[in-house]
Amino acid sequence: MHPKNLSIADFIYPLPDERIAKYPLAERDLSKLLIYKDGQISEDIYRNLAQRIPQNSLLVFNNTRVIPARLFFKNATGAKIEIFCLDPAPIPSSKGETKAEKARDMASAMSQTGSARWNCLIGRANKWKEKQLNLALGDFTLTAEIVSRTADSFVVEFTWQPAHYTFAEILDKTGMMPIPPYLRRESEEVDQLRYQTVYAAQKGSVAAPTAGLHFTEEVMNTLKAKNVQSAYVTLHVGAGTFKPVKAEKMEGHEMHAEMIDIDVATIQSLIQSLNNNIIAVGTTSLRTIESLFWMGIKAQHNTDASINQLEVKQWDPYELPTGNAGKEQTRLVLQALLDWMNKQELNRLLCKTQIMIAPGYKLRVANAIITNFHQPASTLLLLVAAVIGNDSEGWKRIYEYALQNQFRFLSYGDGSLLWANK
After folding, report:
1. Span 274-311, pLDDT tens digits
2. Which residues are paired to 157 by β-bridges?
3. How far apart are CA 191 and CA 258, in angstroms?
4. Which domains does the chain have, with CATH numbers?
5. For residue 98, is it left (φ>0), alpha (ψ between -120 and 50) or beta?
6. Is residue 271 within 8 Å of residue 358, measured between CB atoms?
């Protein structure tokens, strides 16, 4: 069945509110770990993860760093207005052109000084009557002005004084951590540290890659001692990760697009590890490394393709011709992508992906995923069902087991190690 014909009603399960973890455990690596392999379910904790991972495996982590993206202003009457920064918007130049791909390169956007334009959600937007809103902290001032709007969001221009501060510093001074809305509480001091992975490096996410929240330095060291390798990709998680599926059939749902950032050395590591095990830590890492395959397919068919022509569209994995689906083909496809990058004189690949991983999808790069327990009727649950593969009821058995055995759900909850069925 083409995933377009999947009914989201088949991916609903009962999730009582008390099973949603509102706060993290005191110790990250004491979170419970459900292991699914060859149709069998077992339990452990993250502290013992190295015992569950074969030697010479490659773990792929998303090293994005969550930014304090929630800004609170007040209007002339004192009403609070929230501006939630989603991602950078291109800034028109005096010549009517846009500055070089600020939306493509998050690092450039975060380093802007003096002013910046971002796509934003606005809470209580109907209260914003003034042209500008101002926020003052000591000798520091931040001004926000709406310059345009779409059906879903606003483009807001921020300006600030002193102008030498970067936008990253502006958010650090004024913003709050954007914890998920389903926690139904305000961000607290604990979230500043715990809603961030210990290996977070590249600023830009408005949601954490939550599978990584369970890892500690000690866990990383035990994995290294077992000769389990690590590789890092960057995919800045957007608010689209929480986008509900409202259509009855998946063909009516538009998957959110995300920008991936990966260097040549990491792609080479993936190629070298194809004969062993490649384990994606989180859905974003899985989406990233699987997207590389489809970018490589496009590079194979058009060695002169532009970066935009390599972008992965929602249904590409189900409609592009690929031939066989073995590891040797994956090796050739990833090498074609490296060859394309070499021809373009690129050391880093910055490209959008809209990939939808749903039942019917066969993993091309990864063998397993480490991931949390996801919301009902979500594209993340579809991804889990796809990893389980030919065990059609597998995801239901896993989630029923987790509910019956006191696992904690969603971002601050427990997690799982899911091996793809062969």
Report:
1. 999 999 999 999 999 999 999 999 999 999 999 999 99
2. 117, 145
3. 24
4. 3-66+192-419 (3.40.1780.10), 70-174 (no CATH)
5. beta
6. no
Q: Which amino acid is at 248?
A: E
For the stretch 177-213, pLDDT in tens is 999 988 989 899 999 999 999 999 999 999 999 999 9
Enter the tokens of residue 300. 């194979």
